[in-house]
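tool_call: predict_structure(chain=1)
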Amino acid sequence: MSSVAEEKVRLRQSLRQARIDRSPNADEASRLSEQLGQFCLDNKIRTAAAYFPIQGEPDIREFLEWSLKNGIKILLPVVAGDQLNWVHFDGTTEFGAMGFEEGTGKPAKLDSADIAFIPAMAVDFKGNRLGKGKGYYDRALATSKVKTVAIVFDEEILIEVPSEDHDKKVNAALSPSKLLWFGR
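tool_result:
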């Protein structure tokens, strides 16, 4: 294992523990959902790829509900082997192959989205994103042209995140109180 890979493992462990130690915060989830909604309105987003939050990820369920009520189409990932497939979220979920809730709906293509809001453990000021370590989003985004926004908690915006060649950078990061664009 390279030293960068080892750094990523250590940082993930630290961030996972910090998420475990966090208290659920409905106000923070509402602010994040408001930020996402405003982003969609400001950028005239009609279709957004997003995620159904699991295991301490920033909670965007309020945004998903708001989107469906306000005419924004949502694409959600579904795990298929070591890949992510996408569906047009119909407002319902079911437990998928990995044992957590996934959206249901008709098949979709990620590149049909105007933007992709993706979960992250951390992001730095250069747009380097640290995921959970399985590479699902890096593989999904490797051939996609969709702009990406990492969704994180405020304290997960770091000065530097260790990065390797296969790690896909994001275009922006959004937290309950910030929107940061990279390389604009």
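agent: The CA atoms of residues 84 and 140 lie 6 Å apart. Proceeding to next step.
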